[in-house]
Design brief:
By secondary structure, the protein is of the alpha+beta class. It is built from 6 helices and 17 strands. InterPro entries: SRA_ScoMcrA.
Length: 299
């Protein structure tokens, strides 16, 4: 048992001086004690990898597993958390307060119902991947309940939000064709929004906050007057168009009434891609000169 009061704040190096463990890892055994598991939420993890550790509306602490590149697997420290009851290893959680300072939240045990789930988050290179998130139940009823990160949602919510000014400066990251496609997408969205405004049409975007997974989805363009949802891509490649189709149907199922769907592209796509969209009742829109061409889906 770690001799630290619940809510006590101390420097992380002090924790390791007293109880051992790896000073860099988020999941580490207390090597100077009885090999308990110590879990450290990280300011760096939140900043670089989009981790959203913190209390959920379900009364559990949601903790992101380890692994900074690619999909996280149930190995190493993640597997230690999963098996902590079987291995009779208590779990203690620390949250960051400021650089180098942590707060002890107490002893936790893995939830018996839905002990873990997956979320989409960026890795250290900015590539989206699947991460493991554990649901940890406090052993003690004493708890500090300070909000950290975005608010927790127990139900899926959908709201209209403004379309922010897109960043159109070209990134200088070498050999990143995907980043260039994202830049072209931002330019295309800004251009289409100006086109809509000239026609007196107001557009927003949808922010979809999922329930238990605490995932936030943001669409590209939504025209409320026509209940029309548009996904933009910066390239007309088959891969990009197929990705956009999947995103549109993913978003559509959360919006009521279900919106009509549109795909915004920088150039005219191949005829078979236009036919594919039409077969799925998706309107194809592409830039042509100073305007846009529209191939409407069949009703």
């Amino acid at each position: 048992m770690l001799d630290i009061r619940i809510n006590e704040q101390l420097r992380r190096r002090t924790v390791h001086d007293r109880f051992g463990g790896n000073r860099q890892q988020g999941i580490t055994p207390a090597t100077k004690a009885d090999n308990e598991l110590m879990l450290f939420s990280s300011l760096k993890g939140a900043r670089l990898y989009g981790y959203v550790d913190g209390w959920g509306a379900d009364g559990h602490y949601h903790y992101t597993g380890e692994g900074t590149v690619g999909d996280q697997d149930m190995v190493g420290g993640n597997l230690n958390i999963l098996h902590h009851r079987k291995d009779r290893r208590p779990v203690y959680v620390f949250r960051p307060v400021s650089p180098g300072v942590v707060e002890h939240l107490g002893e936790f045990t893995l939830a018996e119902d839905k002990p873990w789930y997956r979320m989409d988050r960026p890795d250290k290179f900015g590539e989206m991947r699947s991460v493991i998130t554990f649901r940890l139940k406090p052993v003690s009823e004493e708890r500090v309940d300070l909000p950290q990160g975005p608010p927790r949602h127990s139900q899926t919510t959908v709201e209209d939000v403004a379309v922010e000014q897109s960043i159109v400066k070209k990134t200088r990251v070498p050999a990143q064709a995907e980043r260039e496609a994202e830049r072209r997408e931002a330019v295309l969205v800004d251009r289409y929004l100006r086109h809509l405004r000239r026609q007196g049409v107001t557009a927003t975007r949808k922010k979809i906050t999922l329930g238990d997974e605490r995932t936030v989805l943001r669409t590209d363009i939504y025209v409320a007057a026509d209940n029309f949802l548009i996904e933009a891509k910066g390239t007309i490649s088959r891969e990009a168009i197929r990705s956009a189709i999947g995103q549109l149907f993913d978003y559509q199922r959360y919006i009521s009434p279900r919106p009509a769907l549109g795909l915004l592209l920088p150039d005219q796509p191949r005829e078979d891609m236009i036919d594919l969209c039409a077969a799925l009742n998706i309107t194809s829109i592409w830039a042509e000169g100073d305007s846009f061409q529209v191939h409407k889906a069949s009703p």
